[in-house]
Design a protein that fits this description.
71% helix
Length: 98
């Protein structure tokens, strides 16, 4: 059977593993950030609507904050893909386990 994986030097493989570990960390941070920020934006929006309903001008600030948080959550969702996993580079796994 032919080895279809391109040959990498030990240094290249080490750098790829370090980059894959960093990408995996950021993917896990995004996995926590997305639902938390959407929940918080719902709560902040409810507070803003309550304040606007009671003629408080600060309510619009809460609603604007909600928009910023929700947009950042959707940007994180769009950029969620971990390219190293798609290439089969999984950190902290030996070749026998993969």
């Amino acid at each position: 059977m032919q080895d279809t994986e391109p040959t990498m030097t030990k240094e290249e493989r080490r750098k790829a593993m370090e980059a894959a570990e960093k990408a995996e960390f950021w993917q896990s941070v995004k996995a926590l950030y997305i639902p938390l920020s959407l929940f918080l934006s719902c709560c902040i929006f409810a507070a803003g609507v309550f304040m606007v309903y009671n003629n408080e001008p600060a309510g619009w600030g809460f609603i604007a904050t909600t928009a910023i948080i929700a947009i950042s959550a959707f940007v994180a969702l769009i950029r969620f893909q971990n390219g190293f996993r798609a290439k089969g580079i999984i950190p902290n796994k030996s070749d026998e386990k993969v």
